[in-house]
Amino acid sequence: MIPIRLDGVSKTYGEDSEAEPTVTVDLTVQAGEFFTLLGPSGCGKSTLLRMIAGFVQPSAGRIRFGEKDVTGLPPHKRGTGMVFQNYALFPHMPVADNVAYGLKLRRVSKAERVRRVDRALERVGLEGYGRRRIDQLSGGQQQRVALARAIVIEPDVLLLDEPLSNLDAKLREETRMQIREVQKSAATTAVYVTHDQAEAMAMSDRIAVLADGRAHQIDTPRKVYSEPATAFVARFIGRSNVVAVQIESVEPDVAHVRFGDGRLIVHRSNQEAPVVGETRQASIRPETIRIVGEADADFHGVIESVEFLGSTAMLDVDIAGSRVTVSTPEIDVEAGSRVGLTVAARSGWLIPS
What we know:
By secondary structure, the protein is an alpha+beta fold.
């Protein structure tokens, strides 16, 4: 297992030297880590993965695997295994030959190829599938063949470019943990690209949230969710209410703020110091807001819409002109009703300026 370091790596497309980079990042992936590049379409995450793989040459910066500078090396000399979005399997070859392809290019002996292919298929749960044709496999099975082909060469770095995007929702959930388990058993460093927040949160040791060609936050899933570094991260990861609040007082790790017709205590970063009287943004997750009686309410509002989700309902509530989303188990509610709301103590997060 080796770490990956990107120092000032950027990529600019076009001949205009003044053009803004498509993506620019500094980041380190720890040895053995499952690291995810998460962001909307066009944010630069696939470009970044392809620069790590060697398919795209950076316009600036250096890429290092451990102590080795691989910036100028071609893909086949980087020690990487890659799983593509469309799997890129050879339809005329049986499963075993698809998995063995990289070993043949490396001139691995036939006996060793057979051993390693069998082991790789066992790791992905496809024992006995070696002679099957690709067109005899389901989408999920094809994805696992692609994964087996990537790990059979025993790569230092495993790269995965939205490998679950062609699967249905249920199969994605079943497969994502298997990918994580295979990565652990293969003892390799992994970089995973996705636009799916649930995948990233469930699978990753750390996440880089990308937008507009830069990393807005690099952190654990828990911190990305509960301590967003920017308003974009708060809105992109799950559902969040990003609301304007006025700072009333400040303590070492919390701030007392006014919102609507009430007050909140929200956590804040120790790296920034809000100023009393200023207006800032705070992230309040829908599940931290509860419907309560008038006497116990922090705020009062009017329900604008109700989205029934089975065991819960998502409400859009107008609070003094601000629309707030509330997740509640109380499903017997109607649009137009006036409600009292309270927010769990210290559950909000003051977004750094």
